[in-house]
Protein backbone atom coordinates (compact mmCIF):
# COMPACT_ATOMS: atom_id res chain seq x y z
CA UNK A 1 0.00 0.00 0.00
CA UNK A 2 2.73 2.50 0.96
CA UNK A 3 4.92 1.46 -1.96
CA UNK A 4 2.12 2.18 -4.46
CA UNK A 5 1.45 5.63 -3.01
CA UNK A 6 5.09 6.79 -3.34
CA UNK A 7 5.07 7.17 -7.17
CA UNK A 8 1.83 9.13 -6.96
CA UNK A 9 3.32 11.49 -4.38
CA UNK A 10 6.43 12.04 -6.51
CA UNK A 11 4.31 12.71 -9.60
CA UNK A 12 2.19 15.25 -7.71
CA UNK A 13 5.30 17.01 -6.45
CA UNK A 14 6.74 17.13 -9.97
CA UNK A 15 3.44 18.52 -11.33
CA UNK A 16 3.32 21.18 -8.62
CA UNK A 17 6.98 22.05 -9.22
CA UNK A 18 6.34 22.42 -12.93
CA UNK A 19 3.33 24.62 -12.23
CA UNK A 20 5.36 26.82 -9.88
CA UNK A 21 8.11 27.04 -12.48
CA UNK A 22 5.57 28.13 -15.10
CA UNK A 23 4.20 30.83 -12.81
CA UNK A 24 7.71 32.12 -12.12
CA UNK A 25 8.47 32.25 -15.85
CA UNK A 26 5.24 34.10 -16.59
CA UNK A 27 5.94 36.55 -13.78
CA UNK A 28 9.50 37.09 -15.04
CA UNK A 29 8.29 37.56 -18.62
CA UNK A 30 5.71 40.07 -17.39
CA UNK A 31 8.38 42.07 -15.55
CA UNK A 32 10.60 42.04 -18.65
CA UNK A 33 7.67 43.24 -20.79
CA UNK A 34 6.91 46.08 -18.36
CA UNK A 35 10.57 47.14 -18.25
CA UNK A 36 10.83 47.14 -22.06
CA UNK A 37 7.62 49.19 -22.35
CA UNK A 38 8.85 51.73 -19.78
CA UNK A 39 12.20 51.95 -21.58
CA UNK A 40 10.48 52.61 -24.92
CA UNK A 41 8.28 55.28 -23.37
CA UNK A 42 11.33 56.89 -21.77
CA UNK A 43 13.17 56.92 -25.11
CA UNK A 44 10.15 58.51 -26.82
CA UNK A 45 9.92 61.17 -24.10
CA UNK A 46 13.66 61.95 -24.36
CA UNK A 47 13.39 62.17 -28.17
CA UNK A 48 10.45 64.58 -27.96
CA UNK A 49 12.24 66.64 -25.32
CA UNK A 50 15.38 66.91 -27.46
CA UNK A 51 13.31 67.93 -30.49
CA UNK A 52 11.44 70.46 -28.37
CA UNK A 53 14.68 72.01 -27.11
CA UNK A 54 16.51 72.01 -30.45
CA UNK A 55 14.57 71.84 -33.71
CA UNK A 56 11.32 73.16 -32.20
CA UNK A 57 12.92 75.39 -29.56
CA UNK A 58 10.52 78.31 -28.89
CA UNK A 59 11.62 81.64 -30.35
CA UNK A 60 10.28 85.05 -29.46
CA UNK A 61 7.53 86.50 -31.67
CA UNK A 62 8.27 90.11 -32.59
CA UNK A 63 5.74 92.95 -32.64
CA UNK A 64 6.83 95.84 -34.88
CA UNK A 65 5.12 99.16 -35.52
CA UNK A 66 5.85 99.85 -39.20
CA UNK A 67 4.21 103.23 -39.56
CA UNK A 68 2.01 105.76 -37.75
CA UNK A 69 0.08 108.39 -39.64
CA UNK A 70 -2.33 111.15 -38.68
CA UNK A 71 -5.81 110.59 -40.11
CA UNK A 72 -7.41 113.57 -38.42
CA UNK A 73 -6.15 116.43 -36.24
CA UNK A 74 -8.13 119.44 -35.08
CA UNK A 75 -6.69 121.58 -32.30
CA UNK A 76 -7.84 124.91 -30.90
CA UNK A 77 -7.17 126.75 -27.67
CA UNK A 78 -9.87 128.19 -25.42
CA UNK A 79 -7.82 131.09 -24.04
CA UNK A 80 -10.57 132.17 -21.67
CA UNK A 81 -10.64 128.83 -19.85
CA UNK A 82 -7.04 127.86 -20.71
CA UNK A 83 -7.92 124.52 -22.22
CA UNK A 84 -7.45 122.77 -25.56
CA UNK A 85 -10.17 121.38 -27.79
CA UNK A 86 -8.44 118.48 -29.53
CA UNK A 87 -9.62 115.83 -31.95
CA UNK A 88 -6.98 113.29 -32.97
CA UNK A 89 -7.11 110.02 -34.89
CA UNK A 90 -4.01 107.95 -35.66
CA UNK A 91 -3.65 105.07 -38.11
CA UNK A 92 -1.13 102.46 -36.97
CA UNK A 93 0.31 99.74 -39.23
CA UNK A 94 2.04 96.96 -37.33
CA UNK A 95 3.22 93.41 -37.92
CA UNK A 96 3.53 90.40 -35.67
CA UNK A 97 6.22 87.97 -36.80
CA UNK A 98 6.31 84.33 -35.68
CA UNK A 99 9.83 82.89 -36.20
CA UNK A 100 8.89 79.48 -34.75
CA UNK A 101 8.52 76.22 -36.65
CA UNK A 102 5.13 75.83 -35.00
CA UNK A 103 2.07 78.07 -34.84
CA UNK A 104 1.60 80.93 -32.40
CA UNK A 105 -1.85 81.83 -31.03
CA UNK A 106 -2.69 84.94 -29.04
CA UNK A 107 -5.70 86.33 -27.23
CA UNK A 108 -7.60 89.53 -27.87
CA UNK A 109 -5.76 92.69 -26.87
CA UNK A 110 -5.69 96.47 -27.39
CA UNK A 111 -3.48 99.17 -28.81
CA UNK A 112 -3.12 102.09 -26.39
CA UNK A 113 -2.59 105.81 -26.94
CA UNK A 114 -0.94 107.71 -24.08
CA UNK A 115 -0.12 111.34 -23.36
CA UNK A 116 2.08 112.27 -20.41
CA UNK A 117 1.69 108.77 -18.96
CA UNK A 118 -2.12 109.02 -19.14
CA UNK A 119 -4.30 106.72 -21.26
CA UNK A 120 -6.19 108.85 -23.78
CA UNK A 121 -7.19 106.31 -26.45
CA UNK A 122 -7.69 102.59 -26.95
CA UNK A 123 -8.41 100.29 -29.91
CA UNK A 124 -9.12 96.55 -29.45
CA UNK A 125 -8.07 93.84 -31.88
CA UNK A 126 -9.29 90.21 -31.88
CA UNK A 127 -7.53 86.97 -31.00
CA UNK A 128 -5.81 85.22 -33.87
CA UNK A 129 -3.23 82.63 -34.93
CA UNK A 130 -0.02 82.92 -36.93
CA UNK A 131 1.34 79.98 -38.90
CA UNK A 132 4.93 78.69 -38.59
CA UNK A 133 7.50 81.27 -39.73
CA UNK A 134 4.75 83.65 -40.90
CA UNK A 135 4.08 87.36 -40.39
CA UNK A 136 0.65 88.80 -39.62
CA UNK A 137 -0.02 92.42 -40.69
CA UNK A 138 -2.48 94.40 -38.57
CA UNK A 139 -4.07 97.83 -38.87
CA UNK A 140 -5.31 99.77 -35.87
CA UNK A 141 -7.11 103.10 -35.65
CA UNK A 142 -6.54 105.02 -32.41
CA UNK A 143 -8.94 107.84 -31.60
CA UNK A 144 -8.34 110.33 -28.82
CA UNK A 145 -10.89 110.29 -26.00
CA UNK A 146 -11.08 114.08 -25.67
CA UNK A 147 -12.56 114.09 -22.18
CA UNK A 148 -9.31 112.60 -20.84
CA UNK A 149 -7.43 115.87 -21.56
CA UNK A 150 -9.95 118.52 -20.58
CA UNK A 151 -8.03 119.47 -17.44
CA UNK A 152 -4.49 118.87 -18.70
CA UNK A 153 -2.69 122.24 -18.65
CA UNK A 154 0.48 120.84 -20.20
CA UNK A 155 -1.39 120.18 -23.44
CA UNK A 156 -2.00 123.92 -23.82
CA UNK A 157 1.74 124.65 -23.92
CA UNK A 158 2.37 121.70 -26.27
CA UNK A 159 -0.26 122.87 -28.76
CA UNK A 160 1.02 126.44 -28.58
CA UNK A 161 4.56 125.18 -29.27
CA UNK A 162 3.24 123.34 -32.34
CA UNK A 163 4.20 119.79 -31.31
CA UNK A 164 2.26 117.15 -29.37
CA UNK A 165 4.27 114.20 -27.97
CA UNK A 166 2.26 110.98 -27.55
CA UNK A 167 3.00 107.30 -27.07
CA UNK A 168 1.47 104.21 -28.65
CA UNK A 169 1.74 100.85 -26.93
CA UNK A 170 0.76 97.40 -28.19
CA UNK A 171 1.06 94.16 -26.21
CA UNK A 172 0.21 90.65 -27.39
CA UNK A 173 0.03 87.66 -25.03
CA UNK A 174 -0.18 84.11 -26.35
CA UNK A 175 1.39 80.69 -26.44
CA UNK A 176 3.54 78.48 -28.63
CA UNK A 177 2.59 74.79 -28.68
CA UNK A 178 5.54 72.42 -29.27
CA UNK A 179 4.54 69.02 -30.69
CA UNK A 180 1.11 69.52 -29.08
CA UNK A 181 2.73 68.55 -25.77
CA UNK A 182 4.60 71.56 -24.39
CA UNK A 183 2.94 74.99 -24.23
CA UNK A 184 5.18 78.02 -23.81
CA UNK A 185 3.60 81.35 -22.83
CA UNK A 186 4.89 84.34 -24.79
CA UNK A 187 4.38 88.09 -24.42
CA UNK A 188 5.42 90.53 -27.14
CA UNK A 189 5.07 94.32 -27.05
CA UNK A 190 6.04 97.46 -28.91
CA UNK A 191 6.17 101.03 -27.58
CA UNK A 192 6.52 104.09 -29.82
CA UNK A 193 7.19 107.67 -28.77
CA UNK A 194 5.99 110.00 -31.53
CA UNK A 195 5.74 113.75 -32.05
CA UNK A 196 2.85 115.21 -34.03
CA UNK A 197 3.07 118.56 -35.81
CA UNK A 198 -0.03 120.66 -35.16
CA UNK A 199 0.40 122.86 -38.25
CA UNK A 200 1.34 120.11 -40.73
CA UNK A 201 -0.94 117.46 -39.18
CA UNK A 202 1.66 114.72 -39.53
CA UNK A 203 4.16 112.65 -37.51
CA UNK A 204 7.54 114.40 -37.40
CA UNK A 205 9.36 111.95 -35.10
CA UNK A 206 8.94 108.25 -34.29
CA UNK A 207 11.04 106.14 -31.91
CA UNK A 208 9.88 102.54 -31.38
CA UNK A 209 11.17 99.80 -29.12
CA UNK A 210 10.08 96.15 -29.07
CA UNK A 211 10.42 93.56 -26.32
CA UNK A 212 9.45 89.92 -25.83
CA UNK A 213 9.16 87.67 -22.79
CA UNK A 214 9.14 83.87 -22.75
TrEMBL record:
Gene3D superfamilies documented for this protein: 2.60.40.1820
Signal sequence range: none
Annotated region (Disordered), positions in chain: 1-23
Entry superkingdom: Eukaryota
One Pfam family here: LEA_2
Keyword Nucleus applies: no
TM regions (residue ranges): 32-56
Keyword Cell cycle among UniProt keywords: no
Domain Late embryogenesis abundant protein LEA-2 subgroup as annotated: residue spans: 94-192
Protein name from the UniProt record: NDR1/HIN1-like protein 6
Source species of the chain: Raphanus sativus (Radish)
Gene that encodes the chain: LOC108840889
Amino acid sequence: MLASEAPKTNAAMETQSAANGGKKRRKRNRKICICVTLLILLLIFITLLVLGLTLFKPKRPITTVDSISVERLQASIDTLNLKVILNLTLHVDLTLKNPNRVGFSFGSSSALLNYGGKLIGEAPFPASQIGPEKTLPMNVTLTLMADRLLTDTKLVSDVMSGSIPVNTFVKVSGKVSVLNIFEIKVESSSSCDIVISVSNRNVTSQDCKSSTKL
